[in-house]
Write a structure and sequence with these properties.
Number of helices: 16
Radius of gyration: 31 Å
Oligomer: single chain
CATH topology of the largest domain: Phosphatase 2c, domain 1
Helix content: 25-40%
Strand content: 15-25%
Length: about 625
């Protein structure tokens, strides 16, 4: 079948042949046991919960497909419990005969087709015309009883080749959806149990306590799901996993990342007893653990299976492990893998000390659920880390490696990417000498925080240089040329920028003339040799990409000998809780309070004092120039 993904080779195609044969003789779709289990979930005609929409939204975003569904299928229809790509008020279901889910439900196996019109089982499906379906990929979603509830699927309106990553992602999300269905039912049962226990509280205090424990565990799993969209960086993910485990599941927890060379590196440590934290940290940071241990994290890193360890009766423990368990007073520990795309990326150890209740099968199941969901969070964080590294590398490569050294001028520049919670954006600075020897300074900020913003920044930087290199255009004309070129070439961009031109000095000159034009950018600052600070322009023109036909005024000032001109992006003066005016006032005060600092030390002080150590809310770029003399 053209366009199909088979993983492993031929497996999906062979399974689907079995589907057809089984459906012809005894249709599992109408099995009484399956229909009873489906109706027991109460998901038919239910309103999608946020956790389900997060999963389908994640599938739609990462595969790029226009539609993603979580369906519930009975013997007559396919109800779209979560439906990404369907407009509000649009259809919520189709008939069983129109659905592609019927093929998955009938055989209980995945269906992945790059071109549904090329497969004899699906080529006559009515949804090809009614919904424009051309490519379809779905995996079964199960009820807690093991019956097929429906499917987790993505749909494309064009023929496509589903990548192995696409298929793996859909399969993983389908598995999470199955667990979410089970969790929903478990939570409902817990709530029912709690209601009954509260009604008989005086007679069944123990039952009430158990119900409360189950509710807390259900809440714990719900909190893990929230991590999927929090945007935490990898370090934050490790810390969050340990924080979720203690004290909800154990008295202590630590996470070890699995390195490429097989080493295990402790990345998060937490203990409910602050006085014992130091002992725990000393152990996990000095253990020198590696994959291949007979028992413990190194063993789980290889097996990928949850492991219960009770030091008092665990013959495979090494002497060092036994000594550490005795010192930490460990009674039992659950060790679980945190997997990403089939590989164990990290291992979490959750333990209880003497005096705490031993772990039960329910505790083990809870830790397995925690590890399964946390694995998706880890996968998102790893992907984010990769994207950030790519975009930051790309952006730094596009910034000038060396600043020019025009006669009589000194320059310094700084660039700081946004904090870890964001991807790199499109801030940049530049400096060059044009054909007439004029020094041009450029500062700019492209909207966005991703690789696209960094790429747009690189294009704009080149366009500004091309427009200004021949010394024919004024600074506002350089911006206007770039703006018109973007419109002509269909380069959809929204950015602020400022171009300043500093003419050559002369032996008898008392200063240099600075002429500039602004496209919606924060005003330049001029610092006199005595430390007086002037805000040069409070009426910026329109940003690039807004109105290419509008002219921008040229402004000018004198840069005296010993004076400093500072250009910067808004991330330097704007932050959460402080507006631009407040940030600008802080910057002006700092400059006025820095007389006598050389240019490099001045730039260092600006970055150190105005930006938080954990990283700014936005990218920051700045460039400063000082006229020699005085």
């Amino acid at each position: 079948m053209a366009g199909d993904i088979r993983r492993p080779p031929n497996r999906i195609g062979q399974d689907l042949v079995v589907h057809t044969q089984r459906a012809g003789s005894d249709d599992p779709t109408r099995s009484p046991a399956r229909l009873t289990a489906v109706r027991a979930t109460e998901l038919l005609d239910a309103i999608a919960e946020e956790s389900f929409d997060r999963l389908t939204g994640l599938a739609q975003r990462l595969t790029g497909a226009p539609f993603a569904f979580l369906t519930v299928v009975d013997d007559e229809r396919s109800y779209w419990l979560s439906r990404q790509g369907i407009a509000a008020g649009g259809p919520a279901e189709n008939t069983l005969e129109e659905s592609f889910c019927q093929y998955v439900v009938a055989g209980g196996e995945p269906l992945v087709l790059g071109d549904v019109t090329a497969d004899e089982r699906t080529r006559d499906n009515p949804s090809i015309v009614s919904m424009g379906v051309r490519a379809w990929a779905g995996f079964p979603v199960h009820t807690p009883e093991g019956e097929v509830l429906g499917t987790f699927c993505v749909v494309d309106t064009e023929v496509r080749t589903w990548s192995a990553d696409d298929v793996a992602l859909i399969e993983d999300l389908a598995a999470v959806a199955s667990r979410e269905v089970g969790l929903r039912i478990a939570v409902r049962r817990v709530e029912e149990s709690r209601a009954a226990a509260e009604a008989a509280a005086r007679e069944a205090e123990a039952a009430t306590a158990r119900a409360r424990t189950e509710a807390e565990r259900a809440n714990l799993l719900a909190r893990i799901s929230e991590l999927l969209t929090t945007g935490l960086d990898l370090d934050g993910v490790w810390q969050a996993i340990a924080a979720l485990a203690v004290p909800a599941i154990g008295d202590f927890a630590y996470v070890c990342a699995v390195q490429r060379d097989g080493g295990l590196t402790a990345v998060a440590v937490r203990h409910s007893d602050p006085s014992a934290t130091g002992v725990l940290e000393e152990w996990v940071h000095s253990a020198g653990r590696r994959t291949g241990e007979a028992v413990g994290p190194g063993h789980v890193a290889i097996t990928g299976e949850v492991e219960l360890v009770e030091p008092a009766r665990a013959p495979g423990l090494s002497a060092a492990q036994r000594a550490a368990a005795q010192r930490l007073d460990v009674s039992s520990a659950l060790i679980a893998p945190l997997s990403s795309r089939g590989d164990v990326a990290a291992v979490v150890v959750i333990g209880r000390t003497a005096g705490s209740a031993p772990y039960t099968d329910e505790d083990r199941a809870l830790v397995e659920a925690l590890a399964g969901r946390a694995g998706l969070v880890v996968e998102n964080a790893l992907l984010f880390q990769l994207q950030r590294a790519l975009s930051e590398t790309m952006q730094r490569a596009l910034l000038p490696a060396l600043l020019p050294r025009p006669a009589g001028l000194r320059m310094a520049a700084r660039y700081r990417p946004a904090g870890r919670a964001q991807l790199v954006g499109g801030d940049w600075y530049d400096a060059y000498l044009d054909a007439a020897g004029t020094t041009s300074l450029v500062i700019g900020d492209v909207a966005g925080h991703d690789i696209d913003a960094a790429a747009a920044m690189g294009q704009l930087r080149t366009m500004v240089r091309m427009a200004g290199h021949d010394a024919v255009r004024t600074a506002p004309e350089v911006l206007a040329t770039v703006d018109r070129a973007c419109a002509i070439f269909g380069f959809d961009v929204f950015a602020t920028a400022l171009v300043a031109q500093i003419g050559p000095g002369s032996a008898d000159s008392t200063g240099r003339t600075v002429r500039w034009g602004s496209a919606g950018h924060p005003p330049p600052l001029l610092v006199s040799p005595a430390g007086a600070v002037s805000v040069l322009d409070d009426r910026p023109g329109l940003p690039l990409g807004v109105a290419p036909e509008r002219d921008r005024p040229e402004r000018s000032a004198t840069l005296p000998a010993g004076g400093t001109l500072l250009l910067y992006t808004d991330g330097l003066i704007e932050s959460r809780g402080h507006d631009l005016d407040h940030g600008l006032a802080r910057l002006v005060h700092l400059l006025a309070d820095s007389p006598g600092l050389d240019l490099e030390r001045l730039c260092d002080r600006i970055v150190h004092e105005l930006l938080p150590s954990a990283g700014a809310d936005d990218d920051v770029a700045l460039i400063a120039v000082r006229a020699e003399g005085a």
